[in-house]
Amino acid sequence: MRAQLLDGRTTSKTMLDSVAVGAAEFLRTRGRAPVLATILVGDDPASHTYVRMKVNRCKQVGITSRRIDLTESTSTGDLVRVITELSSDPDVDGILLQHPVPPGVDERAAFEAINPAKDVDGVTRASFAAMAFSADGFSSATPGGIIALLDAYEIPLAGSRAVVVGRSAILGKPVGMLLLERDATVTFCHSKTGDLENHIREADIVVAAAGVPDLIKGDWIKLGAVVVDAGYVDNRGDVEFESAAARSAWITPVPGGVGPMTIATLLAQTLAAAEKRTIVK
């Protein structure tokens, strides 16, 4: 047995093609392109790479990118003021604050300054509540991308036993909520979980979101399980890929699995935000 790949590159291209069609229609009917404001605080090289990728994808699909770069010494108050201004700007449809921010900045306070109607990265408490209660709002981009990827390959979620490894506010917790809303039985595992191996062995779906390379051993994977690896450190995921691929039915590559879906979901939600906020002329 050898797992089939959950190909995020191919699936995200289909999503982005659809966004491009929608953005062109938005421009035709509204007289302007959708606008995504991206805020980068500090000089983290990986963050600069991610923002550059997002700016390039915006250009490819017809979304206008407004990039705001702030210095490492930016205070929480200054960052909140910038976000508040963007939240009130009628020409901005979506706001992305690149994670992580420097240690001296209160990231949660900054996130909460984002108008929920423009929270296309799904990081506010309002967005989390919307995910938990199937209300109108935006999903966290990576969790939303994971669900979109599973749907694209028609992976059944209802009735499945899903184990989420990691409990971050922007990945582990929200992906668990989205799986729960799709009628999966969800178990959260984390750094204090004493019997991680046994939980993994019972899982029909494993979502690895710990950011610890090779944390999950391939021989822990249940035969025929679905493995979604959202970890990414030095081109390695949280799951031992080769040995896990020998046991699972479906698995995401790293890179090329979850990552492309994150950007595609972010831009799809930017288009959706723009459409909700404006009327046809």
UniProtKB/TrEMBL annotation:
List of residues binding NADP(+): G166, R167, S168
Which CDD domains is this protein grouped with?
A: NAD_bind_m-THF_DH_Cyclohyd
- Reactions performed catalytically: (6R)-5,10-methylene-5,6,7,8-tetrahydrofolate + NADP(+) = (6R)-5,10-methenyltetrahydrofolate + NADPH; (6R)-5,10-methenyltetrahydrofolate + H2O = (6R)-10-formyltetrahydrofolate + H(+)
Record-given protein name? Bifunctional protein FolD
Instruction: Report the SUPFAM superfamilies cross-referenced here.
Output: Aminoacid dehydrogenase-like, N-terminal domain, NAD(P)-binding Rossmann-fold domains
Q: Tell me the classification of the organism that encodes this protein.
A: Bacteria, Bacillati, Actinomycetota, Actinomycetes, Mycobacteriales
Q: What does this protein do?
A: Catalyzes the oxidation of 5,10-methylenetetrahydrofolate to 5,10-methenyltetrahydrofolate and then the hydrolysis of 5,10-methenyltetrahydrofolate to 10-formyltetrahydrofolate.
For this protein, the record's InterPro entries field holds:
Aminoacid_DH-like_N_sf (IPR046346), NAD(P)-bd_dom_sf (IPR036291), THF_DH/CycHdrlase (IPR000672), THF_DH/CycHdrlase_cat_dom (IPR020630), THF_DH/CycHdrlase_CS (IPR020867), THF_DH/CycHdrlase_NAD-bd_dom (IPR020631)
Q: Plastid: is it a keyword of this entry? A: no
Q: From which source organism is this entry? A: Rhodococcoides trifolii
